[in-house]
Design goal:
The chain is 49% helix and 11% strand. With 270 residues, it is mainly alpha-helical. A hairpin with a 2-residue loop joins strand 1 (2-8) and strand 2 (11-16). The protein is elongated.
Length: 270
């Protein structure tokens, strides 16, 4: 059974039942990565994922996903190829694989290459073989049988449906910047914070003109416990996770409350 829905910008999302996620938990790296088990006819799911990621930027919200910086490196640069060092930064246990491959004798190494359908003449240097292993593991090997890297191609297509590629280049957004914008900052729920350092705070003229009330307001807010600050954050934004610094505005208004007859006369609605 398949449901078809237009989700915006001419993008057609076909979500099948039962639903299979385009992301999967990469246990060794303790993060999410592209799901390698999905066939090519599921490419619409990757395009939808890209569209949703781009929509978080436009709508100034976050998706609480454990996506590593390397994911956004691949998203921003279609020509990027991960190195062995990149793989180790994502998955420290890959260092053992490197050590094992380097430690194999020649016959063992050539036997492994033969089993994987690789030419010993082409991969005389073990670093080259390891680089192929890295690209294949991260689904970024365009030379792979059947065509590799198509998952990220479709994620990019969906992402740039929302945000033009030229805009990303013009703003010089880095992978770390984009990860922080899309997934929020690396944030622990028990960590203290200052609203005025995280948000771009905008106050109305009435509150700005009343320094005593303004100071009392911030003294009260900053005197809250970490738990109560998080609850206030949840009340204001809908989530208790902090956004990337200076990416969201917080508007504070002091509504006019008429108390007596004279105040009612000042109220422009009367």
């Amino acid at each position: 059974m398949t449901h078809t829905q237009v989700v915006g910008g001419g993008l057609i999302a076909m979500v099948s039942t039962p639903y299979v996620s385009p992301l999967t938990h990469y246990t060794s790296g303790e993060c999410l990565w592209v799901n390698p088990s999905l066939p090519y006819h599921s490419r619409h799911l990757f395009r939808l994922l890209g569209y949703l990621l781009g929509s978080t930027v436009i709508n100034q919200c976050v998706m609480d996903l454990a996506l590593p910086p390397l994911f956004f490196t691949a998203l921003l640069d279609p020509d990027w190829r991960p190195t062995i060092a990149d793989m180790i930064s994502l998955d420290p246990s890959f260092q053992k694989t490197v050590d094992d491959v380097i430690g194999w004798n020649r016959s063992t190494y050539e036997e492994v290459l033969s089993m994987e359908g690789l030419s010993p003449k082409r991969y005389r240097k073990r670093q080259e073989y390891l680089s192929v292993r890295v690209a294949g593991t991260l689904l970024l090997d365009r030379a792979a049988e059947g065509g590799g890297a198509w998952q990220f191609d479709h994620i990019r297509d969906g992402f740039y449906t929302v945000i033009p590629l030229e805009a990303m280049h013009k703003l010089k957004v880095t992978p770390l910047d984009l990860r922080s914008i899309v997934c929020g900052s690396s944030d622990m729920s028990d960590r203290d914070f200052n609203f005025r350092e995280v948000f771009q705070v905008v106050t109305d003229c009435e509150l700005r003109s009343c320094s005593e009330l303004r100071e009392a307001f911030w003294e009260t807010v900053e005197g809250l416990s970490v738990y109560n600050k998080r609850e206030l954050l949840r009340f204001v934004t809908g989530v208790n996770k902090l956004p990337a610094p200076d990416t969201e505005c917080m508007s504070i208004e002091m509504p006019f409350l008429p108390i007596g007859l004279e105040d009612h006369k000042k109220d422009p609605s009367h």
